[in-house]
Amino acid sequence: MSRRHTSVIAAIAAIPLFVALTGCATAGADTGGSDGGDETVTIGVVGKGDPQWSAFVDAAAEESIDVEIIDFGSYEQPNPALTEGELDLNQFQHIVYLAQYNEASGQDLTPIGSTAIYPLGLYSQKYDDVDDIPAGETIAVPDDASNQARALLVLQSAGLIELTSGGTIFSDLSDIDESASKVTVTALEAALIPTSLPDVAAAIINNDFVEDAGLSFEDAIAQDDPSDPNALPYVNVFAARADDADNETYAKLVEIFQTDEKVQAGLLESSGNTAVALQTPVDDLVESLATVQEDVAANG
Question: Which domains occur in the chain, in start order?
């Protein structure tokens, strides 16, 4: 089946999910040094079965770092678990999501390394082209604030809606100019959108849930552009507690993730070859987090 890919330049989001803790985390052992030894580092992720994680655990073991991957079914749990010391690190979110969590919770989690950026796609089981979607149809988007804003930007760039503000990382359903929009938009929990796809004309589906809907990434009928220079706030990151920002073991783990060939191959495989791997300087990530968090506070 032929699919026309509409590339739209908008802000980027990843990943990325929200439900319940499916693994049991224990705080890692002494991770203060860089010599390895008997350390155990617990890392919270969404999608433990993705091939990059088994490769990552093996690569870390070769450096004498024992890594335990803790699986979560949604975006809601990994940051609180990290804050409470149940994890040493997590890797599931972009900077915008992290900024919103910090501002809402009064915490100071910080990025210590980049992983990748992912295009966000619009999928349909009924239509092969955005232009085929009839006026008045309903499109589903994620209900979490950061991914919802990005999803609305994708829909606007695809010509399906108009946003009264022109579109920002803070856009939500209330910003849709209904009289100027072709479709209506409903918000659903990201994890539930795949099962709801048959009930709507199309849906923005986070990468982790695309295959759950029986789709491939190539099936997207519209998506945003991960190479956009304004996409830095949507770079996915390893996050740590602020006190651990300079932990040498954690920095080594970031290096392993960014440079190990099997890890990188797994990352591409799990994203359907859509991930754009990055080695963004940590200072740039921290600066972006501070800027976005200021914006979140100002718009709160």
Answer: 7-11+120-229 (3.40.190.10), 40-118+231-298 (3.40.190.10)
